[in-house]
Design a protein that fits this description.
Elements lengths: L2 E6 L4 H10 L6 E7 L19 E5 L5 H10 L4 E4 L6 H6 L2 H20 L4 E7 L23 H20 L3 E6 L1 E3 L8 H10 L4 E4 L5 E6 H14 L5 E4 L4 E3 H11 L7 E4 L14 H7 L7 H14 L1 H8 L2 H11 L1
Parallel strand pairs: 1-2, 1-4, 2-3, 4-5, 5-6, 6-10, 7-9, 8-12
Antiparallel strand pairs: 9-11
Helix pairs in contact: 1-7, 2-4, 4-5, 6-8
The chain binds nicotinamide-adenine-dinucleotide and thymidine-5'-diphosphate (TYD).
């Protein structure tokens, strides 16, 4: 049976990689991509599927109840994958309102509409950041209590809990995925890895927050999206699945690796004021997803980071238009002054 999927936020980093990955290889899937095209959304990301007969784009806001209802009716939506979000921690520190509007209220509107139309599965794309911060040891499992620390992560945790409550109360077939930090092509250059690659190429300073020893657990975006596909096909309603690739790295290690790969000097590094409330360490245990769903990551950080760096080298036109926007400088100045 055809899956008529509403993908939200499909013009962003992970969502566009997901659509470009899944549509060409599956005849049983039709995708309607609902995206507001915020600063983070970019239709050029979807060039590989523009002509695909199973792809439709709608520009709009997940907070628009009438529009969302119209899409469900018109396209007989029976699956939802909710990627849409305000996704950057630094921006949430500067102003949190839009985070709670999109990430919480928007998710509520999608859930209510999914309930009315009795969808077969609702996948809430979440993050390991909902678990809070780890000390030097241990990993997040699906049973780790939620303890989000930033406006971003608390908005995502709110949405997770709301989605699971729709399963508990109404029997809506909700599945929540919690993934670690993604890297790869098409990531907006406000996040650590693309920012450091592009600044290095332009001989600009690389702003490292605090002591640079914060740890993130990195996963290549395609590994994340392969897990989402498996959850789409086989994820059990009411369940939470952690997704991660066991690739913990200190921020400064990544920055040094990028500098080395680009033949640049460490003098470009600039230690700057720390991010307020900066989580020290994330590490995710994805045993459940691996054993129950048969997923496993394929990409090794040391190799996939090189192909990622090469992608940004070869796609200068993609990021040049973005970094020429004044807003990036604007918020960086605000935050670091
Ligand atoms: P992104 O910021 O690159 O893209 C977000 C997309 O959502 C953009 O295309 C934007 O236009 C769209 N959008 C924002 N508000 C909208 C609204 N109100 N209505 C419709 N569309 C809207 O984000 P990303 O990095 O691709 O993350 C996608 C999802 O994955 C998010 O839910 C995020 O919380 C989650 N996640 C991200 C990471 C990561 O490392 N980037 C890790 C784990 C989970
Ligand atoms: P980021 O890519 O914003 O992801 P998240 O905060 O969601 O994990 O940041 C990853 C790590 O890199 C985090 O510890 C903050 C740090 N960081 C810097 O040191 N400098 C920067 O300019 C940015 C954007 C992040």
């Amino acid at each position: 049976m055809t899956k008529n999927i509403l993908v939200t936020g499909g013009a962003g980093f992970i969502g566009s990689n997901f659509i470009n990955y899944i549509l060409p290889k599956r005849d049983d899937i039709k995708i309607v991509n609902l995206d507001k095209l915020t600063y983070a959304g970019n239709l050029n990301n979807l060039a590989p599927v523009f002509q695909n007969k199973n792809y439709t784009f709608v520009k709009g806001d997940i907070c628009n109840t009438e529009l969302v209802d119209y899409i469900f009716r018109k396209y007989s939506i029976n699956y939802v994958i909710n990627f849409a979000a305000e996704s950057h921690v630094d921006r949430s520190i500067l102003g949190s309102e839009i985070f709670f509007k999109t990430n919480v209220l928007g998710t509520n509107i999608l859930l209510e509409t999914s309930k009315r139309y009795e969808v077969e599965k609702f996948i809430q794309i979440s993050t390991d950041e909902v678990y809070g911060s780890l000390g030097p040891s241990g990993k997040f499992t699906e049973n780790t209590p939620l303890a989000p620390n930033s406006p971003y992560s608390s908005s995502k945790a709110s949405a997770d809990l709301m989605a699971l409550s729709f399963h508990h109360t109404y029997g809506l077939p909700v599945v929540v995925t919690r993934c670690s930090n993604n890297y790869g092509p098409l990531q907006f250059p406000e996040k650590l890895i693309p920012l450091m690659i592009i600044n290095s190429m332009n001989n600009k300073k690389l702003p490292v927050y605090g002591d640079g020893l914060n740890v993130r657990d990195w996963i290549y975006v395609l590994d994340h999206n392969k897990a989402v596909e498996i959850v789409l096909d086989s994820g059990a309603p009411g369940e939470v699945y952690n997704i991660g690739a066991d690739q913990e790295m200190k921020n400064i290690e990544i920055v040094n690796l990028i500098l080395k790969a680009l033949g640049k000097d460490e003098s470009l590094i600039e230690y700057v004021k720390d991010r307020p409330g900066h989580d020290r360490r994330y590490a995710i245990d994805s045993t459940k997803t691996q054993t129950e769903l048969g997923w496993k990551p394929d990409y090794v950080f040391e190799e996939a980071i090189v192909s990622t760096i090469n992608w940004y080298k070869e796609n200068q036109a993609w990021w040049e238009t973005i970094i020429s926007g004044e807003y990036l400088d604007y918020y960086k100045k605000q935050y670091k002054s």
